[in-house]
């Protein structure tokens, strides 16, 4: 029983669960830019039916984000306010759990901002006859931005967690 409890250590940076969650989260976020599976984007380069599916899914994603952006100003303010509180508790007062949470939520807010920017680029392309090549190009650029943000986030989390764990152990 002690081995199980040691395996499920709930300290953030020393916990295997934190790192597994971080890896799975970034994998899922970068696999579906605006809700369109990446394998479908790859197939859309060769197949007309897949191109139509991509355009349909992008249209759905754009309408969802636009609806949220118009009605969600209060939610966005609350999210950034909550993130600020978590960051201050973590980095100002030294709570490890809040530090770990801030290193997850901060980049995810960045992904949300990237998604909003991508939606603003895609919205004029969708009415009427959308250019599938242009839409795919924008989606791939968005995915690349999310992947770069994810790599930077994981690297910073690893350095911060490593430094925190080393100072915690000593």
In short:
The protein contains seven helices and no strands.
Secondary-structure blueprint:
Blueprint (H helix, E strand, L loop, with lengths): L1 H6 L8 H16 L6 H7 L3 H24 L1 H20 L3 H27 L9 H38 L1
Keywords: Membrane, Transmembrane, Transmembrane helix
Organism: Paenirhodobacter enshiensis
Protein name: Component of SufBCD complex
Description:
The chain has seven helices and no strands. It has one domain. The protein is elongated. By secondary structure, the chain is mainly alpha-helical. The longest helix is centred in the C-terminal third of the chain and has 38 residues, at 132-169. It has helices at 2-7, 16-31, 38-44, 48-71, 73-92, 96-122, 132-169. This is Component of SufBCD complex. The chain crosses the membrane at residues 12-29, 73-93, 146-169. It comes from Paenirhodobacter enshiensis.
Tell me, briefly, the overall form: elongated
Largest sheet: none
- Which residues form runs of ≥5 with pLDDT under 50? none
Note the total helix count.
Answer: 7
The helix content is over 70%
Strand content: under 5%
Keywords: Membrane, Transmembrane, Transmembrane helix
Organism: Paenirhodobacter enshiensis
Transmembrane segments: 12-29, 73-93, 146-169
Protein name: Component of SufBCD complex
